[in-house]
Model the fold of this input.
Amino acid sequence: MHDYDKLYIGGQWCAPRGQDVIEVSSPFDLKPVGRVPEAVRDDVDAAVAVARGAFETGSWSRLPASERIAVLERLLDLLTPRTDELADLQTSEMGAPTTFSRAVYGPGPAGVLASTIAIAKSTDWEEIRPGTTGLDIIVRREPVGVVAAIIPWNSPLFTLVGKVAPALAAGCSVIIKPSPETPLDANVFAELATEAGVPAGVISVIPGGRDIGAYLVNHPGVDKVSFTGSTAAGREIASNCGRNLKRFSLELGGKSAAILLDDVDIDIVTAGLKFASLANSGQACIAQTRILAPRSRYDDIVEALGAMMAGLAVGDPFDPSTDVGPMVAKHQQDKVNSYIELGLAEGAQLVTGGLDPFPDLPTGWFVRPTLFSGVNNSMRIAREEIFGPVLVAIPYDSEEDAIRIANDSEYGLAGSVWTSDRERGIEVGRHVRTGTFGVNQYLLDFNAPFGGFKASGVGREMGAEGLSEYIEYKSITPPPAG
Ligand code: NAD
Done:
């Protein structure tokens, strides 16, 4: 059990100002996993006050970048041996299958941190540029200030490190607002950051829901909001930040298309989509959930994909043979099942899956891996993010038609193409309007800028672009020396 009776504010365990407690239970057997105090507004005020204090005094913000990087390297040394333990904690908290957690949730955060360190080392924090007036300009990269990092439940630690690592590298103070479903790993991470040498005030964790998140976003002491979550919440946060001219970056939802070209090897694609479309039980923003298949091969592809999905092992997320675990919570199970109902009501054909309960699984928020065929791109199941193991197969007539359908979406987060011809695949990728795109796979690369076109977000994480989200650029123009 991970029981916390205090909040981590500015590097210290502090008594919470409120009375309420967030109980975390396993989405599989519903047994308790841990508990944290629920933060109230006074706790947020305290976290912002210490964050601002640290920022203004410069205990972290004005350190030479090399000293901050040395602390992050110590943090990496502390985080790396905890990889499997933290992967397992996320399986306990949100039900991610252990094979996925151990492969992605475990090593991912350390990988992102290592990549951020390398990028921070190669960044010119203060450079001289020749000006157009005849005077040289000193261009400085300075921290943006106090950052609110708002985290969803579906990839908690990975998302957290994707925000906190570049924010710390740049010299910001950070207040982490984890989701109420998955607040535990943020505490472990914050404690490690302090142990590594991040000074007092710089890092806080305020577990809570939407209301406390909104209070933090609107707090006058916060300079920048870095948010990952739903597009609906992102829109609200963007308008709140806009009103106050606060900086913000948003990593939002997706409805990514996997385009299967007419030369595709069906065995390769079904094996690939098992991960690209269904990893983390389909609760992934980048999941390839619209399967675009050439009409000439549509029936064969649907049959093969249906057989793969019907064969997925659904069950205990800690069982290494499990492919699909429970949804994070009952609200998510209800939401996904409501989309399966909607698909049936919209006239799509159920290839596999559906709404039958699982007689052998007495507890757990399970849904059946579900494939719909006979779907067109205007149906709601083809347009809205379902966030579970539910795929739709859409026929297309030509490569151009496939690209048009892929782009006919409110979202633009990710995509992929599957083909025997690498060059043809890359060319298709050039025409699909998404932030990332894979050919014959979909994998995140920590050195690649990641983020969304259109309603999938604003700004980027990872790579040098991810670091720049936490930087203000300052130009100083002195007279010539001497
Ligand atoms: P959510 O928007 O409900 O919540 C995300 C976080 O924001 C939570 O911590 C929540 O408490 C907080 N929050 C919600 N409304 C808020 C508001 N108005 N002001 C401040 N904070 C608020 O999303 P979720 O259900 O936790 O996560 C799933 C969503 O996240 C999906 O849409 C998924 O696509 C998206 N996601 C995107 C990425 C990406 O990188 N693009 C990665 C992971 C998840």
In short: Residues 315 and 411 are 31 Å apart (CA to CA).
